[in-house]
Write a sequence for this structure.
């Protein structure tokens, strides 16, 4: 196992500055494809919330993860050191820090992904390792650079642009597209399971709101539902 000794442990409460493999703090605000961060969150948010089942993420697994974090410095169990460096960079390219909240690494998504993958099946682990190997190999073929983390920001973005958009990716990148979808979804599910992510979407939990007057009519019509039918079915109305 690899010790997280760079001060960037999982932050369920947020905190430290995200640092990439080269030691540079993340200040860029754009994701692959030229989208800003908030548009990117909207684009993959729905998939991120559904990714847990694919990885066997259960309440019990999450509770074990929280207990591990509570013991202090997180010990990496799945990512090898070069993969960990790449994963940190990928995570903060997917969800960089912005004026509103922290980045993916600030939220502890890399530790979350490591824990989830450490408990996944061997086939899934192999797919992830193959994906990291493909990424470095693609950088070598394109730029003569042996590792993704050693490429320039422009080069890294160019590589990810080729696999980040399934509907426009070339057929030869099909497997890489599937892998990057897994990376993006696991980063998203980790981010929105963290305190930083919850605050980012303004979720306030089960707080009583005396001023609530129901959902807007246009939203009800879009969903094809109405309060009268709900009351007849569930509210005991005659």
């Amino acid at each position: 196992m690899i010790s997280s000794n760079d001060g960037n442990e999982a932050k369920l409460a947020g905190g430290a500055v995200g640092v990439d493999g080269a030691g540079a703090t993340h200040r860029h605000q754009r994701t692959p494809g030229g989208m800003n961060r908030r548009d990117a969150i909207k684009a993959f948010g729905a998939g991120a919330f559904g990714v847990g089942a694919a990885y066997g993420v259960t309440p019990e697994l999450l509770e074990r993860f929280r207990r591990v974090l509570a013991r202090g410095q997180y010990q990496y169990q799945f990512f090898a050191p070069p993969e960990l460096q790449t994963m940190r960079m990928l995570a903060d390219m997917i969800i960089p820090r912005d004026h509103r909240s922290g980045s993916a690494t600030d939220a502890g998504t890399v530790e979350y992904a490591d824990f989830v993958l450490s408990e996944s099946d061997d086939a899934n682990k192999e797919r992830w390792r193959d994906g990291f190997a493909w990424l470095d190999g693609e950088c070598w073929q394109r730029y003569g650079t042996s590792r993704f983390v050693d490429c320039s920001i422009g080069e890294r973005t160019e590589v990810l642009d080729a696999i980040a958009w399934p509907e426009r990716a070339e057929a030869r990148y099909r497997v890489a597209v599937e892998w990057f979808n897994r990376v993006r979804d696991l980063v998203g599910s980790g981010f929105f399971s963290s305190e930083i992510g919850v605050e980012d979407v303004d979720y306030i939990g089960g707080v009583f709101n005396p001023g609530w007057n129901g959902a807007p009519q246009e939203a009800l019509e879009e969903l094809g539902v109405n309060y009268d039918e709900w009351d007849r079915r569930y509210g005991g109305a005659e």
